[in-house]
């Protein structure tokens, strides 16, 4: 389809530490981010769909993931998810 483009929808409620504002060093590429999502510092999100009320803690990396509503992605240096559906049990 001519003129078709890939869009990134970014609707982020940031609750960064240290007085608020946008988190630092966050990369979001070709992803859909729903409402009321918290993304902390140093996160990378690529080709993923993030549902509402998700918390992505610092240094998390997501690639080609589907994250269900209310899920918490834990912090960590080696916290990397690839091609995974992540949902609450």
Average pLDDT rating: 77
Counting DSSP E segments of at least 2 residues, the number of strands comes to 11
Radius of gyration equals 13 Å
Q: Could you name the CATH class?
A: Mainly Beta
What is the 3D form? globular
Unreliable parts: 1-19
Oligomer: single chain
Which sheet architecture does the biggest sheet show? 7 strands, parallel
User: Which fold name fills CATH's third level, the topology?
Assistant: UDP N-Acetylglucosamine Acyltransferase, domain 1
Q: Percent helix among the residues?
A: under 10%
Would you identify the CATH architecture? Answer: 3 Solenoid
Distance between the termini: 39 Å
Structurally, the number of domains stands at 1
- Total of helices: 0
GO molecular function, one term: translation initiation factor activity
Organism: Carex littledalei
Keywords: Cytoplasm, Initiation factor, Protein biosynthesis
Protein name: Translation initiation factor eIF-2B subunit gamma
Descriptive report:
- The chain is mainly β.
- It has a single domain, classed as Hexapeptide repeat proteins (UDP N-Acetylglucosamine Acyltransferase, domain 1, 3 Solenoid).
- It is 0% helix and 38% strand.
- It contains no helices and 11 strands.
- It has strands at residues 9-12, 27-29, 32-39, 44-46, 49-50, 55-56, 61-63, 66-67, 72-73, 80-82, 85-86.
- The strands form 2 sheets. Strands 1, 3, 5, 6, 8, 9 and 11 form a 7-stranded parallel beta sheet that branches. Strands 2-4-7-10 form a 4-stranded parallel beta sheet, with no helix packed on it.
- The radius of gyration is 13 Å and the shape is globular.
- Residues 1-19 have low confidence and may be disordered.
